[in-house]
């Protein structure tokens, strides 16, 4: 294995645009939920007239679907990702909406048969309910509470009970019901993550900027070196992600 400083320096300038994770191949692993979101998404959009995928990233997940909705829309707030999704899905007739974070969903009331999202930033349940047609469905895989917190707490220190409660599926289903949606399916998973070199950790912290919001290599170099020592001693740094699948119907 290369030195810690070499691994850190290389990862500090690596491309983090889009929502692909090929950089981590052979360098980190994460278990996948048993429900297979990509397959559920492909089945759902293939039989849908009007669908919108929220926070689509670079369109990588939706782009794997063999057939899309007859009128397929996506939203994305980060300009580099919006450019990627236009290149990837524009040729397939997808309408790409580059919107500001927290902006309303760019569809009229009651026009969507399907709203989807893989790891939305902040699901706006009232907006989801507004754009869904009667009988329309929301299908999504959300990040759950305290996801990757072993890694996060290595850098920022202990978190509060309130912080660990964020994104709890019980809270989200209650919010969905308050917005007028019927939750018809909810499944949860806790999944093992392993990081096999410190470069993989630097890269993921640069990509998932909300994990350690003030992350910078120089600011956290001592903590990075301490984690590098753990990886070299134990073979990996282990954390756990949490996910939940949610289906809701208007």
Automatic annotation (TrEMBL):
Residues in a coiled coil are none
Task: For this entry, list what GO says about its biological process.
Answer: methylation
Keywords (A to Z) from UniProt? Methyltransferase, Transferase
Task: Please tell me whether the keyword Methyltransferase is annotated for this protein.
Answer: yes
Keyword Mitochondrion tagged = no
Q: Which GO terms describe its molecular function?
A: methyltransferase activity
Q: Which domain of life is it from?
A: Bacteria
Task: Show the InterPro entries listed in the entry.
Answer: 23S_rRNA_MeTrnsfrase_RlmA, SAM-dependent_MTases_sf
Question: Which PANTHER family is this protein grouped with?
Answer: METHYLTRANSFERASE, METHYLTRANSFERASE TYPE 11 DOMAIN-CONTAINING PROTEIN
What is the protein's given name?
Answer: SAM-dependent methyltransferase
Q: Which organism is it from?
A: Brachybacterium alimentarium
């Amino acid at each position: 294995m290369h030195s810690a400083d070499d691994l850190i320096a290389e990862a500090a300038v690596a491309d983090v645009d889009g929502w692909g994770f090929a950089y981590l191949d052979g360098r980190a692993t994460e278990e996948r939920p048993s429900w297979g979101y990509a397959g559920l998404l492909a089945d759902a959009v293939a039989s849908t007239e009007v669908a919108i995928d929220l926070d689509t990233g670079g369109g990588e997940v939706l782009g794997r679907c063999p057939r899309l909705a007859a009128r397929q829309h996506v939203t994305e707030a980060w300009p580099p990702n919006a450019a990627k999704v236009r290149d990837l899905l524009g040729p397939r007739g997808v309408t790409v909406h580059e919107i500001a974070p927290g902006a309303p969903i760019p569809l009229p009331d009651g026009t969507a048969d399907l709203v989807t999202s893989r790891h939305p930033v902040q699901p706006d349940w009232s907006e989801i309910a507004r754009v869904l047609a009667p009988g329309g469905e929301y299908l999504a895989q959300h990040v759950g509470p305290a996801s990757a917190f072993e890694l996060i707490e290595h850098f920022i220190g202990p978190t509060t009970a309130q912080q660990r409660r964020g994104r709890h599926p019980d809270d989200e289903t209650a919010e969905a019901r308050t917005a007028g949606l019927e939750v018809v399916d909810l499944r949860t998973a806790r999944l093992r993550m392993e990081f096999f070199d410190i470069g993989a950790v630097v890269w993921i912290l640069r990509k998932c900027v909300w994990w350690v919001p003030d992350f910078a290599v120089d600011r956290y170099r001592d903590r990075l070196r301490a984690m590098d020592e753990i990886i070299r001693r134990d073979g990996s740094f282990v954390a756990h992600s949490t996910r939940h699948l949610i289906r809701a119907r208007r």
